[in-house]
Every structure is written in structure tokens, then in C-alpha cells.
Design goal:
Layout: H1 12-16, H2 34-42, E1 44-52, E2 57-62, E3 67-72, E4 79-85, E5 88-92, H3 95-102, E6 111-113, E7 121-128, E8 141-144, H4 152-159, H5 167-179, H6 183-186, E9 194-202, E10 209-212, E11 221-226, E12 230-236, E13 256-263
Antiparallel strand pairs: 1-13, 2-12, 3-11, 3-13, 4-5, 4-9, 4-12, 6-7, 7-11, 8-9, 9-10
The protein binds zinc ion (ZN).
Length: about 280
């Protein structure tokens, strides 16, 4: 927020005192059946795993109706998560709209929504071992949808140089390898992330994006239910626990574990969410 001085009107305090209104009340959003998901999870068996190396990324696929878990292993580490419709990469996680619906940080019971025109829940968070953290006295919380992802362009702008292990580049290389294309072809598919385990907020005095040491410890995890067939990519951020800096090789970094679990029993009554119901005529 810039601080160019302006002259306040006489009724400035009265205007500031107007109570806020929630932009998108979520009481009419279709609610996930967490009890159904958790019952199915108890019957699930592990069908795959990938260990994401520090300062690098890896892809994974999750069939609709299965679960995936992202775990901290070895030491505190944050991850940058991208999700796509496995059959159509143009439908992908929409961080901004998810933020508008659920707030700045996600936890169990909340959902990751997809881009227009699909705009439907593509994953539902079913477990969050950091759910206890809440919002701290700085206004910080975990698993944000306010940051974008660390990237070499912003790094070049602010610090100069060519750093190749920002989450944006890690995700780009991992997706390129998965698709069998060059990085330039994969890069436009990389999008704003869910910052898994990252502890962030906005400063009250300047409104600036801040990060602080993640409260995550080995054994902590975030688990998701795949509402559609998903392709995921996860980067183990070069910021490590993001206690000091990112976009360099100075922070201590650790791997992240992704595991996929498929229920043995069918999920009674559950079907993948339909594409958004808007008719797309835009008034014409
Ligand atoms: Zn990063």
C-alpha cells in the first residue's frame, strides 16, 4: 500500500466505521459430505507415492474418488501445489476464486475450485493436521491462496540474476517431463498455487504479503479427496520452511511426500461435480 498523503474528509472516521459485508457468503455453496469421504478413506489402500526432492518438483495423478496426502518428512518444508483436470489441462485450480469463496487460507472441509468455465470443486481438503494453528497474532495462518509461487521473473526484477529452482520453474520442468514437451510449452499451464504448509499473511500497517517459519513438523500432512481425475504437480520450495528467504540456495530444504490412496468400497451416492451451470451466452 502506498503512503502518498491525502487530505481526509470531515466524515473520514464515520466512513471507516462502516461494517464490512462478506462478498461471497458460502451458505448456498454445495457442501462436501465429509463423513462419507472419511468413511471411504478408512477402506482405502495406498496405490502410489512420489517423493518430491528439495528445490525441485514432481507430478502425480489421482483418479476421481481417490485421496492424496502431502506429508512433511525429514524437516519443515513448504510446498507449492498445482492441480489440473487430467483430461483437459485448460481446467485448472483457480486460486483467486478459491480465495474469494473460502478466504486467504484453506483447511479441512474447504475446496479447491477450478477455472472458468468449469468452475467446480476439483479437490476437497479432508484432513489438516495443522488445523490447530488458526490465525496467529500477526494475522498469519497456513496453507494460503494469497501468494502466487516464487518465480524467476520477480527474482530477476528484485535481485537480478538467473535462478532456476523457484517453484515456478520447478513446476514447469516437472510438467514438461510429464507431458514430454519443452519447458516453454509447459510453462503457460503453470498457475497460482495452494501454498501447502506455508505460514503467511498481510501486515496490518502496510498491507504487505509476509511469510514466517512454517509450524509444520515431520508427520504433519494435508489430505485431499479428488473430485475429478487430477494431474498434480508439487514443488518443494527453495525457501524451505520460508522463515527467511526464498529464490536462492541458502535455506535448509527437505523433501515432501505425496501418497495416493484408493477406497476399496464405492462411495455411495457420490458423483464427480458437474461443470458450472452458467450457459455462457453472456447476454447475447
Ligand atoms: Zn517457492
Amino acid at each position: 500500500m502506498t503512503t502518498i498523503p491525502t487530505t481526509p474528509p470531515e466524515d473520514a472516521e464515520k466512513r471507516r466505521a462502516i461494517a464490512p459485508v462478506i462478498c461471497y457468503p458460502t451458505d448456498t455453496l454445495p457442501a462436501p459430505d465429509l463423513a462419507l469421504y472419511r468413511a471411504a478413506r478408512r477402506t482405502a489402500r495406498k496405490v502410489g507415492e512420489v517423493l518430491v526432492p528439495p528445490r525441485d518438483a514432481a507430478t502425480f495423478t489421482v483418479p476421481a474418488g481417490s485421496f492424496f496426502r502431502i506429508s512433511s518428512v525429514e524437516g519443515p518444508q513448504v510446498g507449492d501445489l498445482n492441480l489440473w483436470n487430467a483430461q483437459d489441462l485448460s481446467e485448472r485450480f483457480y486460486s483467486g476464486k478459491t480465495r474469494a469463496l473460502h478466504g486467504t487460507h484453506l483447511t479441512a472441509g474447504e475446496r479447491m475450485w477450478s477455472s472458468f468455465p468449469g468452475m467446480r470443486p476439483i479437490a476437497t481438503i479432508t484432513e489438516d493436521t495443522l488445523g490447530w494453528y488458526g490465525i496467529d497474532s500477526f494475522g498469519g495462518s497456513v496453507h494460503d491462496v494469497i501468494g502466487t509461487r516464487c518465480d524467476p521473473y520477480t527474482n530477476n526484477l528484485l535481485s537480478g540474476g538467473q535462478y532456476h529452482h523457484c517453484c515456478h520453474s520447478n513446476l514447469t520442468r516437472a510438467l514438461a517431463d510429464h507431458l514430454g514437451v519443452c519447458p516453454a510449452e509447459a510453462e503457460p499451464h503453470v498457475h497460482d498455487v495452494l501454498n501447502v504448509f506455508m505460514c503467511t499473511g498481510f501486515t496490518r500497517d502496510t498491507g504487505q504479503y509476509f511469510m514466517k517459519a512454517s509450524p509444520v513438523r515431520p508427520g504433519d500432512y494435508l489430505e485431499f479427496f479428488a473430485e475429478i481425475d487430477l494431474l498434480g504437480a508439487l514443488s518443494a520450495c527453495p525457501g524451505g520452511d520460508c522463515s527467511s528467504e526464498h529464490s536462492s540456495d541458502t535455506a535448509a530444504c527437505h523433501p515432501l511426500l505425496v501418497e495416493v490412496f484408493t477406497p476399496e468400497a464405492a462411495l455411495g451416492g457420490w458423483t464427480p461435480p458437474a461443470l458450472n451451470g452458467y450457459d455462457r451466452s453472456h447476454g447475447r
